[in-house]
Amino acid sequence: xxxxxxxxxxxxxxxxxxxxxxxxxxxxxxxxxxxxxxxxxxxxxxxxxxxxxxxxxxxxxxxxxxxxxxxxxxxxxxxxxxxxxxxxxxxxxxxxxxxxxxxxxxxxxxxxxxxxxxxxxxxxxxxxxxxxxxxxxxxxxxxxxxxxxxxxxxxxxxxxxxxxxxxxxxxxxxxxxxxxxxxxxxxxxxxxxxxxxxxxxxxxxxxxxxxxxxxxxxxxxxxxxxxxxxxxxxxxxxxxxxxxxxxxxxxxxxxxxxxxxxxxxxxxxxxxxxxxxxxxxxxxxxxxxxxxxxxxxxxxxxxxxxxxxxxxxxxxxxxxxxxxxxxxxxxxxxxxxxxxxxxxxxxxxxxxxxxxxxxxxxxxxxxxxxxxxxxxxxxxxxxxxxxxxxxxxxxxxxxxxxxxxxxxxxxx
Length: 412
Known about the structure:
Number of strands: 15
Strand content: 15-25%
Order of helices and strands: HEHHHEHEHEHEEHEHEEEEEEEE
Radius of gyration: 23 Å
Structural class: alpha/beta
Helix content: 10-25%
Oligomer: single chain
Number of helices: 9
């Protein structure tokens, strides 16, 4: 029978939906060629060309406590770490393969079991913890068998002709998922990628049955892009749904143009990220922002600077984001609306377009205020008028040129 602790799961989902903002860490062997986490596939790179990158992956400046500190400064509440991406390179010391950071130049480091120390560092800062795991594995001979060519992302042989190979792959993948969920502490989220391999293919029901009744009660499962009981929330990638969704969801979006680190990346501005966060929150989702540490294991200064600006804004205006829920009228132009859980207090976030200055007035239709309206930053009361269903807010002079958040009670 499929085991599920509904009460613990629902409590975990409430925490997740309250969090709203998380860090998605892509760090792996692909950080060395620095052309994206799909480089092995997109460039049809043979095994003998990809394996030597292990000798360069020394992670000499890796400091997981610093990563957690930067995420905390950004106002993030949860983290998802890529324990293993599609290339099959493990950021944990797996007993089922030697293809891991624990067997390269980092092997003699006391923190060679990288994932363990990252998870622990973020736990110490009270983050919700998510473990990313790729169901496809381009290094495993039972998925990309060296006897055949590797033309695309899928297994490179016909399963009906080699059922023993596929069985070996199923067992290998199940064992690695179980290894993480059993030996690496408490998790809130198991974030599975590679929808062309199903949960059924890797015995996900069996795994969740086991860990939810032992080491991971209440675990949120994200078998992404595969509808059903194991996709506990949806994960649109690099995009935001056009309208509000009635089910839990999360947009995973890169801070740069790539998930893994690339040199001289064009990073999004804090203004852009805050605008994305406001829109996503108003539509009922969470933002999982992609950050790729350098091959040496550091978060670049340009990234840290942006994270700190975002965090400063959230410390002043976070009531409009954290612990909020959707409201029926949720958008008008550059203004996005959220609500307290009781629905009595509303927030209006003006998402300042990049390159523009704050206007003297902000207008919207619907969500008519009653009583005073104030800016969350500085708790300043602002003047407004409402007529024929339209609201016009006059902003104080001398404000910093950044997105603003307003709080008010509504007459609805």
